[in-house]
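Got a spare moment? Tell me how you read both lines of this record:
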Amino acid sequence: MTSAPFPIRWDEVTAVFGGTFDPPHLGHREAVMGLFKHPGVREVLILPSGKPAQKSAQTSAKDRLEMVKRNFAGIVNPSGRPVQIDEREIRRPTTAFTIDALREIRGERGIGNDRVAPLAFVIGVDQLEKFESWQGFPDVLGLAHWIVLERAPKGQPRAKKALQHLESLSVIRSAGREGHYQTLPRSGPTTALICVSTGARNVSSTEIRRTFALHGNEMNENASDIRSNLAADVESYLKAHHLYGT
């Protein structure tokens, strides 16, 4: 096992932002834009799931991909290039596992198995809590750095508890700074795992689906708050295609 240099040059890192995006919302969009500020990544790659392993999607991969394109339209990397949408998981006929996507991305970029990749996979606290159930755990830790987005108001204490559990399993250790850790995969290089407090709005795709299922296009005042968390192009698409009960 080799060691990664610390601190990480985050301005050289590509962050991979995966998700089911069922539907994508403005909280997702704000989280992506926040990654350019903290930790200050070079670029972001959006990776929508096709057949996610840990949750089921209520809409087709085709519909979710189109909404993803609309939700993240207009966001540019610090270099001025638009963020990219990586469609590999949408096209994959089998269940999508993060370890497979990361291995493929590393291979396409010529990154050997024993090298620290300038990649970081972005996860939420809910995924952190289920980390040890991931395919290929703990070796998946050595394929990329990891950015954990802590969403207010309960994200930080939940993340702390999950991280303490991972420390007890000896798969991460403190890097000597609050919220900064080194991973300890059984094979491959040591990478960084950091917790980032996100200013993105606290909204869930589950709640959006539930609200549209209950109210459809007849939104009352409270339900209208849910609509305010969707990009206009996303809302128009889901209505035109009668998704989530619209």
The beta strands are 14-19, 43-48, 84-85, 119-124, 145-151, 172-177, 180-183, 192-198. Residues 1-5 have pLDDT under 50 and may be disordered. The longest helix spans residues 155-168.
